[in-house]
Amino acid sequence: MEISTRGKNVTPSSTLAMNAIANQLKAEGKKVVNFGVGEPDFDTPLYIKEAAIHAMLTGLTKYTPVSGLLELRQAICSRFKNDYNLEYKPDEILVSNGAKHAIFNVLQALIDTGDEVIIPSPYWVSYPEMVKLCDGVPVIINADPKNDFKITPSELEKSITEKTKLFILNSPGNPTGTVYTLDELKGLSDILVKHKIYVISDEIYDKLIYDGEKHHSIASINDEIKNLTFIINGVSKTYAMTGWRIGYVAGNKEAIKIMTDIQSHATSNANSIAQYAAMIALQGGEKELSNMVAEFDKRRKYMIEKMEEYGINYVRPKGAFYVMMNIASYKGKSINGELIDSSDKFAELLLKYNGAATVAGSGFGNDNYIRLSYATSLEDIKLGLENINNFINSLR
Ligand code: PMP
Ligand code: GLU
Predict the structure, then answer these.
(1) Which DSSP symbol is given to 216?
(2) Does the N terminus or the C terminus of the chain have fewer Cβ atoms within 10 A?
(3) Is the CB of 122 under 6 A from ligand 1?
(4) How many angstroms separate the CA atoms of 206 and 209, rounded?
(5) pLDDT category, 143, cuts 50, 70, 90?
(6) Which residue's C-alpha comes closest to atom 12 of ligand 1?
(7) pTM here?
């Protein structure tokens, strides 16, 4: 088979792969604690499911406009206004098959061959792969764990070249849980405006935030940066709707029109029933959301407490549902004669000998870490952290 260069260069999503392995081991009856999963373990709230049933029963089962139901786009605009005082019109919104698809559409519309896209590391696995699929060049800035994995304006400016087209910002961040403050965003925004660099601001975890932190959208700083920014969001995380596949992008009307045309040939509209359910989701759910956030926070605090107790080095997360555990000091050690020489090997042996599934930092651009997701029960978290502690203590 003669596969394209593009196809040959793509690597599979390590987050989805680890989730699949953990689920398969569980199905085989093995006891596995799944710290690999990147989706809320909560069920989609009932009022949303009822909306989907209503949509089906009332015939919302046909094609919709490619860009999404007008009522849904209006609901999205209202949320931007209410949450962040951001003004968008429905023709500045495109609804896609998940936030992942929304990001891909932006890259398809903006990136020409050889264009550089700046991505702070650790990054969500799919960003560099998607850039490469659009024949762009990912330019990685290694964010310092001592600065909570946040990059500074001068680090950003140093990585800008004539070819830089776009910057990908993700706050709250996956896999780090990092949250940028308004002042930090202002610093980055000044550089981006000065050099006229477009921004993808992936705000999918905006509602999952702790320690009294507040989410700010970079687009809300001023009109200049708003005009350069494409905000990504969706219902996957906030409403525990990962399987429904609804995400969206907000930004410049002309660019949104191009993205809509691209989507019209690739997938047409997102699922009509899920669109209707997403519209109802966006208009409510405060109680369910605050219960979910409170539960995540309880688990986060527990994780931090236990990691301190076990002497594990980590970076304190302030958002999303992940924590990065430092594994650098275990490199060079072995278990049953098997050497740990990378984060992949650490994750593989941890799963093999102590039944805890995690995601290796290599896929996120930092081989000194593994990612633990706390989107799993407190009971599992307790057991899983004991397993990790036992694993570490058995390394020689
Ligand atoms: N961005 C980030 C940072 C994510 O963690 C995810 C989770 N998969 C996505 C985008 C994609 O979300 P969706 O499931 O809506 O495609
Ligand atoms: N974003 C989640 C994660 O990072 C889900 C998996 C994916 O879409 O990559 O685990």
Answers:
(1) -
(2) N
(3) no
(4) 7
(5) very high
(6) 99
(7) 0.97
Classify 5-43+287-393 by CATH class.
alpha beta
The CA 15 to ligand 2 mean position distance, Å, reads 5
Model pLDDT for residues 306-344, shown as the tens digit of each residue: 999 999 999 999 999 999 999 999 999 999 999 999 999
Contact between residue 248 and residue 219 where contact means Cβ atoms under 8 Å apart: no
Most informative mutation of 101, 237, 239 for ligand 1 (most atoms within 8 A of CB): 237
Q: 317 in ligand 1 pocket by Cβ < 6 Å?
A: no
Long-range CB contacts (within 8 A, 24+) of 337-346: 340/395, 342/367, 343/367, 343/368, 343/369, 343/370, 346/370
Q: Which of 129, 93, 23 is nearest to 282 (CA)?
A: 93
Burial of 284 (0-12, 13-18, 19+ CB in 10 A): middle
- Provide φ and ψ at 304, rounded to 5°: -60, -45
Question: Cβ(170) to ligand 1 under 6 A?
Answer: yes
Same CATH topology for 5-43+287-393 and 46-284?
no
- For 227, the token pair is 């005009």
Task: Say yes or no: CB of residue 138 within 6 Å of ligand 1.
Answer: no
Q: What per-residue confidence (pLDDT) applies to 17?
A: 82
Asked whether the beta carbons of 175 and 315 are under 8 A apart, the reply is no
From atom 5 of ligand 2, which residue's Cα is the shortest distance away? 38
Ordered by start, the domain boundaries in the chain are 5-43+287-393, 46-284
The class (CATH top level) of 46-284 is alpha beta
Write the burial class of residue 29 (CB in 10 Å: 0-12 exposed, 13-18 middle, 19+ buried): exposed
